[in-house]
Amino acid sequence: MSIRGFRIYGKTLPNNVFSILIESVHSESFLQIQAGALLALNKDVGNNLKASYTKFSDGYGLMGILRLFEGDSYLILITGVFSVGQLNNCDVYKITNVQFISLNREPTDILDPRIVDLQKLLSTGSFYFAYSSDRQNVFDLTLSSQKRHSTKVSDFRFYCFAFNRYGIDADDWLVQCMCGSVLIRTIYVGHRTAKVAIISRLSGDRVGTRFSVRGVNDDGNVANFVETEQLISFEDQESSFVQIRGSVPLFWEQPGINVGSHKVKLKPFEVSMPALERHYIQLKNYYGGVATVNLLGSKEGERLLSTAFQTALKTSSHSDVQMISFDYHAQMKQSKDSVKYLLKKIDSIIGDCQFFHLKGDTVFKYQKGVIRTNCLDCLDRTNCVQTLVGMETLVLQMALLGLDQIKANISTRFEEVFRDLWQKNGDQCSIVNAGTGALEGKSKLRDASRSIARTIQNNLMDSSKQESFDLLLLGCTFGNRIFDKASNLLPAKVIRECPTEVEAFVDREREMCKAETLTVFAGTWNVNGGKNMYNVAFRHEQSLESWIFPTYPYNSNESLDYDIIAIGLEEIVDLNAGNLVKASTTNQRVWRDGIKTAIDDFNKKTNNVKYAVLACEQLVGVCLIIYVKTHLLGKIRDLAIGEVKTGLGGATGNKGSVVVRMTIHSTSVCFVCSHFAAGQNEVVNRNDDFQTSLRKVRFPLGRTIGVHDIIFWLGDFNYRINLGGEEVKAAVRQQNFDYLVKFDQLNQQKEAGNVFSNFNEGPLNFAPTYKYDTFSDDYDTSEKCRSPAWTDRVLWCDQNGLVQLLHYGRSELKTSDHRPVYAIFRVDTLKVQIDKCEEMVSDVICSMGPPDSTILCSIEGYNDSFPTDCCSPIYAKLQQELGIPVLATKIEGQYLHIVLPSGVEALASLSMDQIMLENGRKLNVTLRSPNWAETYTEKLSILFKEAKEEKNELNGSADTWTAININLDDEEDEDISTTGRPIGDTTFHRNSFADFELLDKNW
């Protein structure tokens, strides 16, 4: 690719629509893009149009079109490349620069500021593509040699930006761009040459920076998943060996922004199991057999994560997966010879996996399995072990190709080259994920400088890089409520196939779901420093059980059979300077376990239901704990936690909010616990605290609090009553709560539209909950003598009629200056029925029309060319009689091609077929893609079949693990003892529960 083969022209049309014309020396046609429509124009038409357009850029290739918002799209043009070598007579290029060209405005207009970050991301040297003048023989970087031999379909885990939906053949215009690393060398073997390469492909299914994205998502995709292929091509022979790496397939994270603060935090064991099952199902479908090499160590959170991973794999239906656990740091520190033990284990696995060997057109050997390697971040330790595996396999590959017999020192030459390639591959994988090269262990000074650079990268630059990754892969769907809702209803692959029909799918949500009713308890209590959990007062007065399981107004325990219990605690620690800097979590654990004990004790007397801690998060004094029935864990997806500080304008966490979101079946639910500004007259600050919490909390995929189907917002909001203390107390004695409600600040602000718009609250038929003398029924008798107020509240937002309030009240626990408040709800969650989904999707597709939204018009009797004097009458009928705007047109032979805004308009325009135009000519109208419905139905049938099979596999394995309840506590990981078997010598071949006794004791 010696010249820039793509030229971009543009002009603004008379109707102020910006039009782009693309010319390619590699194609016999032009491409026109305007008003969201794409048209392929023949050479003559394109050349005629080109004269009226202005050239403003040229480049080496097109990556595709990225839509950031509705009506805000960009063409990504490759403007800088660097050749890295040739494979199969195809040139392979590294992308060094790109240009984002707006499709909606002149190039000189101001662009979205995020475009700069996207340009930087794509210009880092981590994206590659292959080119050949023979378009039928382009080397597909997304496919391994074995896959490439059996299919021509790109692996969309490693490739994006196709635009076949526009009716344009993507292969004619787009490069197949891949993120990762491509390293190619030529080795002379006597008078002949061999090509060797290491290709690493980063999956786009869960991509992100080192600390931003960890673990697995609900679809079974893990962070930093990289497929690495070791390739040798010699004469008519080819051999390749594939390895994979990826984050531990459990729900875990490493939050924190400061050096040393990134501690491992795991979500409940049972919540991770469906995702782990999906992950290994996918691996087996892609690669056959799987062996896992786990390099996690025994320090800090790694031991917790490693033990959880081993236990989860043993407990799953994939207990046949061999796991080798090797504490790389500890073992190598003891002795460099420790690697021989690992080699011994790996040799047998390589023998089982084998590798691919092709001679001519005949395959002599297939790779039957894959080695999956992980450490904590899948960087340095993983790089070292994958190099070790690659070098061991190299000996076998060379023997099979006969290279080791040709020349005495040729084996040494291959080993030297591959060691260098593996080192550079490790650097490149580290740069994509961590922003710096790998830590090699050879130079302490270099490793130290890279470690410092990583710290700066992680703390200062990762958030913008993560947003760029998300925007690049998700485009306008990032943070989009409709797409977020659709993702809860339909398989991801179905949404990818039908992006324009997503809103119609969501509108018909009820048709594909059935309601499943849950009971939810939501309680809040300001515990005044949290020290009185086990106070003697509890022994003689009421206990936590009386708050969570109130006897009034219920007459039977059946009503208290909660599916979810959400507990919000405020001032769980004293709000002093020390806790503002680093709050103790001791009280958090005490209250979490104490409440769990109260729940378990009550249920032992009634229905013996088991609960698990789904989430427990603390922000200084605010703590939110979610307990759920264990059988519900497998139905919960997309669990995420957020927090925001609102104290001193957001600088401190003495006030703030903790948020937990999840999807139950297909219904998204959000719990928020807040502590707002105190003070009788601080209404504006409280309002600001609410708005800050609502605005600033961000979850993965751009989700916000407001996009959820159901929101429960509870806490100490600190809103007061605008009356004097004595007047309030007199009304309380008379139980004249309706009078007090009129002066309640929260209700006043809510009615004014300043806070909690669209939120509901139960009737305030109970006395104000603040401020009491501790261990007393008397309101504040101190010198300040604060006026009583309903500071503690539970509100909910539900715009779909899914929530019914059963009771709203308070408890009489007296160990704090606040009384606890609770609300009990009946909630309908919507459960997807996959068979009804398929029916509904097929029906929507048939009603939405062809995705290219293009019609073909012809005039009866004109079989060679379309009469141009008929264009205006056709446009007039479309626009004036049918109200359908015309986006783009072209004439080819006897047909006038017209692109309309949507497939629905294309179907509507068929009503013009066989009509007589004003000039007396008969018009024929057909769809450009008349068989679109059959094509899509066939594709979707396959996708739904895959979804059903995966669901059946998961249902079959669920009984293995749903009864297990292991509390993984990151704060107590140092107390975990190891089994008699060393962590570096752990191999699992069978489904065994031998370790559960140990885990229950230590967690």
UniProtKB/TrEMBL annotation:
InterPro entries in the cross-refs: Endo/exonu/phosph_ase_sf, IP5, IPPc, Nucleotide-bd_a/b_plait_sf, SAC_dom, SYNJ1/2_RRM
A GO MF term: phosphatidylinositol-4,5-bisphosphate 5-phosphatase activity
Top-tier EC class: hydrolase
Protein name, entry field: phosphoinositide 5-phosphatase
UniProt key word Zinc-finger: no
Similarity annotation: In the central section; belongs to the inositol 1,4,5-trisphosphate 5-phosphatase family.
GO biological process: phosphatidylinositol dephosphorylation; synaptic vesicle endocytosis
PROSITE patterns documented for this protein: SAC
Alphabetized UniProt keyword annotations: Hydrolase
Pfam families xrefs: DUF1866 (PF08952), Exo_endo_phos2 (PF22669), Syja_N (PF02383)
This protein's record includes keyword Cell inner membrane: no
Protein's organism: Ditylenchus destructor
Recorded catalytic activity of this chain's protein: a 1,2-diacyl-sn-glycero-3-phospho-(1D-myo-inositol-4,5-bisphosphate) + H2O = a 1,2-diacyl-sn-glycero-3-phospho-(1D-myo-inositol 4-phosphate) + phosphate
The EC number(s) this enzyme carries: 3.1.3.36
Recorded coiled-coil stretches: none
One GO cellular component, as annotated: presynapse
Gene3D superfamilies in alphabetical order: 3.30.70.330, Endonuclease/exonuclease/phosphatase
Domain SAC: start-end pairs: 118-435
